[in-house]
Amino acid sequence: MRILVVEDEPKTGNYIKQGLTEAGFLVTLASNGLDGHHHAMTESFDVIILDVMLPDVEGWKILQSLREVGMQTPVLFLTARDSINDRVKGLELGADDYLVKPFAFVELLARVRNLLRRGSQSTVSEQVKISDLLVDIPSRKVSRAGKSITLSQKEFLLLELFIRRQGEVLPRSLITSEVWDMNFDSDTNVIDVAVRRLRAKIDDGHDHKLIHTIRGMGYKFEDEIEADEQL
Amino acid sequence: MNSYKLSTLSLTLRLMIFAGSAIGLSLIVSVVLVQESVKKHFSDQDLGELLVVTGSVERRLDSIDGNMRLAQEALSNAVSGHHGVYFRVDADTGEQLFLSQGGDFLYQLNDFDATKITDKTQLKNWQLDGGVYRGLVTEVSVDGKSYRVIAAMDMSFHKQFLDKFTVKMWLMMFAIGIITIGATWLGIYQGHRPLKMLSRQIRNIQTHQLDERLNPTLLPIELRNLAISFNQMLQHLEEDFERLSNFSADIAHELRTPLTNIITQTQVGLAQTRSLDECRELLYSNLEEHERLAKMVSEMLWLAQSDNNLIKPIFKVIDLNNEINELFEFFDALATERQINLTLEGDNVSIHTDRELLRRAFSNLLSNAIRHTPSGSTIQVTISQPEKNCVEIEFINSGEQIPSHHIKRVFDRFYRVVPSRSSDSEGAGLGLAITKAIIEAHNGQITVFSDSAHTVFRVRMPV
């Protein structure tokens, strides 16, 4: 998976590059608009991360010219202003998602994965078995080690989200937005409590834990014992 | 355009134009009136004199008893004592009976019909050889005979007097005009002095002296309202300025604490060789502070945008009950863990609102309520419609009473009832400020009251 990052701030650019590289992507970093445009036109990428405030060419222009030549590569734009105008403008010009600076890297990673997954088929089949956890999605039946577990509607949605995005670190904001449709920085405690309650039902009494807290970043659902130690 | 020009015209000039025209006009009118009345007076006087002459002629004619030979002598004495008066007497046959000396010019009145009416309208004026004359033609009946008496007088003297008088009059009026206009200008200039003084006082008010006020009682009554309005503006400015200053100070304080933590722990961490776990611990701890900072910055940015009216709600019709229930679902886990009951009461109301913003506003209120409600109690949300076009949503919790001196400030930025920066769940103290900004962006109001039993946040919004 190849990602183009167009970001003029060297520190931000380099860290995004390092983070994405370590998450398994091939990253090209362009530090100005012209280079970025050139890379985008001449090479093939799966996602483009575009800072809209560039010193030479406005990010909007790059986005516009890419769309004008019919290039459909998903674009996620970074903006420093949380104004509706920017958001609307970006999405109208054909961007697929956006993040407001300062953002958390996990959030960026989650969004990038979202864009990559878009279009491809849902990886979740109707019946899922992870370790000894059995989930029947259409009938919303969950059992672990043969014991049936009763989940509330939101708890089930949370579990479903975890299963769909197994192995990914899910930031709290993403969970809030996907499960409860709340798209703002809300009381993060709520998510912690909700995950804790789900975990009590899923993991309590089992040595093999599935829901892992990634400190400072979010939660991860993974069938690996040493998962706590990894990103 | 014209009205703009007029409105920028100097006040002095404006007043001078008005006062000047009024004074000038009244002076001209009075000159004309005086002139007219002097003329009238003269013509009355002339008429009187001509009538006296005519009367005298009539009496003389009467005294001669029709003896025309005596007429010449009798009539020659008729005008003694009347200088510059000439007359001629014709018989009804047209024969001239008498012509006073120097009265040759009287032939000019021959064409006029004799009249018995003797008022001013019958006076004839004419000029001849540089002299100005005024005359009267009357018909006189004596002993059954009628005579035609033509009397006239030289009024060059009157004319000269009138001309001189007119010049004097105009000069006098001109002087009066100049003096009056000058006095008016002085008056206006003096009248503007309080305004200049006011302007000087206002100019001297600096940002650090916003507590200064103008004293309206020292000003003329017309300027008092201006001073009072200005004082009110100053009051608002002072409050806003103070709030802004406090806000800046608060920002600095709020930023300093996490920054101090980060710097201290990083320096302590670097002071010795640390194990990988210790380093990781340090990074985690830093991350938490950084996230807190980032959240604060984005909230402050949001508030700054709302201050500049950049937050534009995208209105949609939403179902209020549904919205509250979804928020309840969101807070369900947290509330259940704290053994707090969330209940909703009231009518089903659809309102025009920005869903995202409203959720954010209400979630702050709910999260706030959950934080301050003892476990085992209930948070009640009630929806009601006190009027047709507005809806009232109350968030009632049975938490501790908010002391009255705090209650005014709960919506202030960074304001916390418990002053120390509390540990985890509580944000930077911007939540309620954001809620208030959102409600106000929807043209609603939010109020709070608190007693020993309940604390109620009441939101009133247009439907």
Distance between the termini of chain A: 19 Å
**Shape estimate of chain B:** rod-shaped
List the chains of the largest interface with their residue counts.
Answer: A-B, 26 and 33 residues
Beta fraction of the residues of chain A?
Answer: 15-25%
The main sheet of chain B orders its strands as: 2-1-5-4-3
Number of DSSP E strands of chain B: 12
Distinct helical segment count of chain B: 11
What's the Cα radius of gyration of chain A? Answer: 19 Å
List SSEs of chain B in N-to-C order: HHHEEEEEHHHHEHEEHEEHHEE
Question: In percent, how helical is the residue content of chain A?
Answer: 25-40%
Instruction: Return the structural class of chain B.
Output: alpha+beta
Q: What summary fits the major beta sheet of chain B?
A: 5 strands, antiparallel
* Strand portion of chain B: 15-25%
Mean pLDDT of chain A: 86
The portion of residues assigned to helices of chain B is 40-55%
